[in-house]
Amino acid sequence: MSQTGMKKSFLLRLVIGVMVTGCVLGAVVAWRLISVSDQLPELRTVNVQRRDLVITVGTTGTIEPEEVVQVGPDVAGKIVQFGTDAGNPEKSIGVGSRVKKGTVLFELDPQQYEIALQKAKAAYRLAQADIARLQAQLEQARRTLERADRLRETNAQSDYDEIVTANEMAAAQLAVGQAKLDQVAAEVNHAQISLSKTTVRSPIDGVVIDRRANLGQHVNIGHPGLFLLAKDLDQMRIRASVSESDIGKVRLGQPATFSVDAYRDHEMTGRVEEILLNARMHGNFVTYDVIVAIDPPDVELLPHMTADVEFEIIRRNQAWLVPTGALQWWPGAEQMEQAVATDSIVSSEDPNGPTEGESAYVWVPSENGKVRPLPVRVGIDDGVQTEVVGEGFEEALPVVVGEVKRTTLARIIPTAKTLR
Q1: 352 vs 35, which has greater pLDDT?
Q2: What are phi and psi of 367, to 5 degrees?
Q3: Alpha-carbon distance 41 to 122, whole Å?
Q4: Taking CA 84 as the corner, what is the angle to CA 81 and CA 90, rounded to the nearest 5 degrees?
Q5: What is the mean pLDDT of residues 44-54?
Q6: Pairing mode, if any, of strands 199-201 and 104-108?
Q7: What 3-state class would DSSP assign to 8?
Q8: Per-residue confidence (pLDDT) for residue 5, from 0 to 100
């Protein structure tokens, strides 16, 4: 046989082999598809859990001392000196300094108030001298009136009336002089008080948490918060901002947990102490301040730390929990055990599943890919897991949450993996 004929014969046998192999593979694929189509779907399951379920409302707040006192001047002037830190005599009072009630915080330039006091005292002495003059005039008028009374029968009535009027005017002038003396005395007292207020003292025992003043700075009357004093840094609280949509869920005495960035993995506790009614407006957004009393912490909290706060709204201790999807899944009739009375079991009409207080079913895998129902009463949920109450639950009990979705290739060749 020629070389060309041998080549054609080889190609013919190759084509026939490929065709036979294709037919065999096609038959295998068809058989696999038919056999797989008769099987029940593979189920996705998650184990039941038993643990505490807590529903919370979250927000942020600021750590602050329970009592903060703002200290500012009652008179205007230039700051010329700060008080001395008791813990470090070479240092002036500043942030972190501990002070006693009456400790000098700062002093204002007293010169103008000393001059004002001197003027007031001089005016007082002048008023006293005027009182002496008016008293002498009144005494002279009284003696003239007494003499006129003795000589009334010989004096004209008009002369007598003039003497009486002069006596009354002298008495009135003395009264005016006395009022002026009292006024000047008040001015002296005011000048003395103003001079004393150039020295500003601490009104409480506490700690300086902020100082907003510098030497040479001119301050006005009532300048707020030059010094911020905290009575006790061991007694702190949280001022939390709660939105109007959540404020109705917050109650006095309600437990709360919180953490701060400085101790991110450390959870601390507290309780709602006060709900303030002075709403804050942020455009169209309304919030309310809630004061949270802090239980004694085992870490150091500082003023103005930001706290992430969770208010405990509802708690269920040691509840049976299933994924919310387990209450939304419903099997086909062919997946139920034969003993299940399908006519008496009805799925929820709500596409989102049953809600709190309703009766429902969760499905537990049985033999041969079938499932059996467990009747339950639905409790609270946190959006991921739902509390259920019923019989037949145990630790690690699997419940069905859905079916495994497979591609055609995966159904034909179960070990096949999709490469991405």
Answers
A1: 352
A2: -85, 155
A3: 108
A4: 105
A5: 92
A6: antiparallel
A7: helix
A8: 58
pLDDT digits (tens, 9 = 90+) for 263-282: 998 999 999 999 999 899 98
Write down the mean pLDDT value for the chain.
84
Can you give the pLDDT at residue 419?
34
Q: How far apart are the first and last CA of the chain?
A: 52
Residues 376 and 354 sit within 8 Å (Cβ to Cβ) = no
CA 56 – CA 259 distance, rounded (Å): 14
**Where does residue 89 fall: left (phi above 0), alpha (psi -120 to 50 degrees), or beta otherwise?**
alpha
> Is residue 135 packed enough to be buried (19+ CB in 10 Å), middle (13-18) or exposed (0-12)?
middle
Q: Please list the residues that pair with 387 across neighbouring strands.
A: 321
What angle in degrees, to the nearest 10, is found between the helix axes of 157-196 and 111-150?
A: 160
CB 251 within 8 A of CB 274: no
Tell me, letter by letter, the H, E, C secondary structure of 40-109.
CCCEEEEECEEEEEEEEEEEEEEEEECCEEEECCCCCEEEEEECEECCEEEEECCCCCEECCCCEEEEEC
Whether the per-residue pLDDT at 19 is higher than 80: the answer is no
How many whole angstroms separate alpha carbon 194 and alpha carbon 204? 21
| pLDDT(62) > 50 | yes
Confidence of residue 229 (pLDDT cuts 50, 70, 90): very high
